[in-house]
Amino acid sequence: MAGIDILIPPACLVCHTRLGAGQKSLCPECASQISYVKDNFCYKCGSELDEGYCESCRETLFKFEFSRSSMQYKTPLTELMHLLKYSGYRSPAVFMAEKMAESLKDYPEFEDYPYITAVPLHRVRKRERGYNQSELIAKKLAKLSGKTYIRPVVRSRYTLSQTKLHRTQRLSNLAGAFRVRYGQQAQGKKLILVDDVFTTGSTLNEISGELYKAGAASVAGFTATRA
Ligand SMILES: [Zn+2]
Ligand SMILES: [Zn+2]
Fold first, then answer.
1. pLDDT, averaged in runs of 10, over the chain (227 residues)
2. Given Cys at both, which of 16, 100, 179, 211 links 156, Cβ 3.0 to 4.6 Å?
3. Which ligand is nearest to the CA of 68?
4. pTM of this structure
């Protein structure tokens, strides 16, 4: 594991205090601020509510079977996500995958999903960033959970960043953005589609549709965080 140690600086990624022995990525103070998604979520999309299905799932039919998230997209996850996506730090991906592996124990509905895939990044953006952050998370999660990583879908179109778009704009921005390239990899499989953040669910929804077209038996979403 020497390679991973080199990637993790000996200071807290968020507040930069020195880490003690056995501490990784975050100091105890920052780690204590993580909000986990555990109870009380929509059965379908995993959004917070008392029980049953949220308003948006009663109206729109997401194509994925269900979606779950590990943590809330709040401090310190917002800071970790920024480091991962815009500052070239890969170690937050390892941290998030470890948290997701722990969360899998709270979500038995993932048990009979043996395959993991990631939301693809367009090759131009991947070249700019040096890696696909969702792929880093998904590959590590596959390793930790004993599932098999596959990559049946590619991003065929360079899309605008989703962050500044409204819900309907997000959907049209993504239309036709993903293409199944290795369909036989998905055929008949139950797979978990991994992403960093669940915001409106439009990305997971779009890719799920493509995977079903390629013959996937079932697609479930799993994100590190939930906005
Ligand atoms: Zn800290
Ligand atoms: Zn819902």
1. 54 92 90 87 85 80 94 96 93 96 94 96 87 97 97 80 74 78 88 95 92 95 95
2. 179
3. 2
4. 0.88
- 4 within domain boundaries: no
Domain range for 178 is 11-226
**Ligand 2: centre distance to CA 49 (Å):** 9
Task: Give the ligand with the smallest distance to the CA of 67.
Answer: 2
For the chain, what is the domain count?
1
DSSP 3-state of 157: coil
CATH number for 140: 3.40.50.2020
Structure confidence at residue 164 (pLDDT): 73
> Does some domain include residue 3?
no
pLDDT of residue 7: 56
138-171 in b/e burial notation, b at 16+ Cβ within 10 A?
Answer: bbbbbeebebebbbbbbbeeebeeeeebeeeebb
